[in-house]
Amino acid sequence: MYEIDESFIPSPPSDIDEPFIPSPPQSDFYDTEAEGSPPLPVRVRLRHQSGAAINDGQIPLRAVRYSSRKKRWSQTSNCAKGIREPLPSSIRILTWNIDFASPERKKRFITALSYIQQHVFGCTTANERPEPCCILLQEVHVSVFTLILNAEWVRRYFIVIPTGTDRWPEHSSYGNVTLVSRTIPVVNAFTIMFSNSAMNRTAIFVDIKLCIPALEDEPRLSRGIVTLRIANTHLESLPAGAPARPRQMKLVADALREQGLIGGIVAGDMNAIGPSDGGIVEDAGLYDAWQGDDDDEEGFTWGYQSPNNRFRPGRLDKVLSTRPEGFIVEEPERIGIGEAIRQDTWVSDHFGLVTRVHIVRDD
């Protein structure tokens, strides 16, 4: 077992320019099944935001990727130098709130990750490479973050954002994590910590490079390379959070429309539980990939596997985009329905969603 003496860990203002020194996790968060593993780049105490005002600004992030040669996780540069074609022209996006509050967090998380690997992406062993994809997770508890980094499938084929739980807001016991398959170049990453959130809610953004597919008879591989921004968010919960959600959605939407992007996609737990949530997607200038009505039970993602019966089932989780010009977002499908670690002990109180995004030619 390891213990961290936090007095020896500096408090950098951001991931950028931080000399990377892997830190073993505290014993409370140590994965006993991986005691032979090298130290992980996880700082579990939330120091660098102490005393700093949260002002809805973009805070730069880096990702980590595992080096099989060095046998350690290392920070990426976010510069994607030497991008070579062929790049993918389509990717799959998966979003899932995996429930930080219910008991047996580690067992539920391991089951969820195994389900994603095997049943969603069809990788029956950790040696199988997934198709180009982004996996957006919400409510990742601090105690399971190291499980992500110890998962062999993740080590082989993904980069992980953020680098550790200290990149969540101060005092957060859970947060968002984005996994991007290594077949997709990542050229930028940042987070927005919502200043109006009483629940430490955030959005994580990654900019990825994809290609415009060429015509079949063209000698070149593509008609160019574009940058797509993908956001992973968890908006304010409960009826008391209704006044905060429109502002949070607008902040995400504005970030998806910055110059230099073909557009953007945001997926996650939007906590759309009341009548006031019906118009915030349109008000933010976003488009819903779901083609049904909000009262269509085929789209509901919460309310069937929850011990909380105070609220009706509903479509809390969504996939949204900027105006779909130059790309197409397929209607999302639900995943994780009925997935449990034992009878009546669900992996999550939410269903997840999975969709596919295609870059298209102007013609």
What is this structure's SSE topology?
Layout: E1 58-60, E2 64-67, E3 72-75, E4 90-97, H1 105-120, E5 133-141, H2 145-150, H3 152-157, E6 158-161, E7 174-181, E8 186-193, E9 202-213, E10 222-234, H4 245-256, E11 263-269, H5 280-283, E12 287-288, E13 317-321, E14 327-329, E15 333-335, E16 340-342, E17 345-346, E18 352-359
Parallel strand pairs: 4-5, 10-11
Antiparallel strand pairs: 1-8, 2-3, 2-6, 4-18, 5-7, 6-7, 8-9, 9-10, 11-13, 12-13, 14-18, 15-18, 16-17
Which structural traits does this protein have?
5 helices, Deoxyribonuclease I, Chain A, alpha+beta, 18 strands, nine-stranded mixed β-sheet, 363 residues, 29% strand, seven-stranded mixed β-sheet, disordered N terminus
What class would the helix/strand composition place it in?
alpha+beta
Main beta sheet strand tally, sense and closure: 9 strands, mixed
How many H/I helices?
A: 5
Q: What kind of oligomer do you see?
A: single chain
Uncertain residue segments: 1-39, 44-52
Q: Tell me, rounded to a whole number, the average pLDDT.
A: 85
Structural shape: globular
Element pattern in H and E? EEEEHEHHEEEEEHEHEEEEEEE
Number of domains: 1
Radius of gyration: 20 Å
CATH class: Alpha Beta
CATH level 3 topology: Deoxyribonuclease I, Chain A
- Percent helix: 10-25%
- Report the portion of residues in β strands: 25-35%
